[in-house]
């Protein structure tokens, strides 16, 4: 037989990147500062690619809550939620999340990825899942795990989604799956269009709120609240690794569906339960989200300022109006070179390359948080100016 290890090698494009000293991944952070900066290789860099939009991962209240829970309940749960890993702390968080999102029930999972993977239990081989072209890998994997037919519609193209729905077997079940706020482009889903088509065709809507729950809407309830269409979302998934400043995830929806997922979602049944520390931190974060709207206001205002600076320099920054600002570079090598130049200038960003983005659409993902000061935003823009000019990306 063939040796499976013979096929295990990096993408061909990464060799020239490595030769240039521009490999952007697995850079170990030595320390995280409360100012939103990090120390890498002894250097202090301003973070400009974090998902910690509200700046809560270093908040003393979350740290204290995590420490208290650890001292009382230990460092782990020693089992899955199904058997011996459930805590009253999990149930408290589930009750709070369900009420926050306007759903009947919620189910806390160990990661946001596993929350999305739980959806694989909803659609089987005879069913069709219609999903935006830019959905997260975890949503794609969940459909594959369930065996449903996956049909992708062009990003926010409701005409294309409508044609795909028209072609579906009316005797089969269907789901429309989208992110609320897309993680690579920062754009919002066209929830009004999705809701209209879902009603017309009698299909359910699942919204991944990983990046928008806690950030968007008058109460921080995400893209659904932003559009005033919370009732149009049948099932919500959430990741605690963004606005909640910790690790974990959840699925929220009708009580009957959540009960079904508790017993049939493999990512729930066969994964160790979320640690006491992360559960308590998520509860503390929810308190902040509900009582301190100024944090999300600051993250959005910082993004508007930085986006104007970067587009003014001549960078292509897309149409996002959220804290995610995509700076388009094109090919992988140029993207990684830009990342390395920014790193040299003291700015720590994120390089997004295929398969995270479509071929030929590599980009630097810049994101702002509530912690970014005006001086840090100026520093980021100055770094982009210097790096872009050296690479010939801007005049």
TrEMBL record:
<dbReference type="InterPro" id="IPR015421">
    <property type="entry name" value="PyrdxlP-dep_Trfase_major"/>
</dbReference>
<feature type="domain" description="Aminotransferase class I/classII large">
    <location>
        <begin position="49"/>
        <end position="383"/>
    </location>
</feature>
<dbReference type="GO" id="GO:0008710">
    <property type="term" value="F:8-amino-7-oxononanoate synthase activity"/>
</dbReference>
<keyword id="KW-0032">Aminotransferase</keyword>
<protein>
    <recommendedName>
        <fullName>8-amino-7-oxononanoate synthase</fullName>
        <ecNumber>2.3.1.47</ecNumber>
    </recommendedName>
</protein>
<dbReference type="GO" id="GO:0008483">
    <property type="term" value="F:transaminase activity"/>
</dbReference>
<dbReference type="InterPro" id="IPR015422">
    <property type="entry name" value="PyrdxlP-dep_Trfase_small"/>
</dbReference>
<dbReference type="Pfam" id="PF00155">
    <property type="entry name" value="Aminotran_1_2"/>
</dbReference>
<dbReference type="GO" id="GO:0030170">
    <property type="term" value="F:pyridoxal phosphate binding"/>
</dbReference>
<dbReference type="InterPro" id="IPR015424">
    <property type="entry name" value="PyrdxlP-dep_Trfase"/>
</dbReference>
<dbReference type="InterPro" id="IPR050087">
    <property type="entry name" value="AON_synthase_class-II"/>
</dbReference>
<dbReference type="InterPro" id="IPR004839">
    <property type="entry name" value="Aminotransferase_I/II_large"/>
</dbReference>
<keyword id="KW-0808">Transferase</keyword>
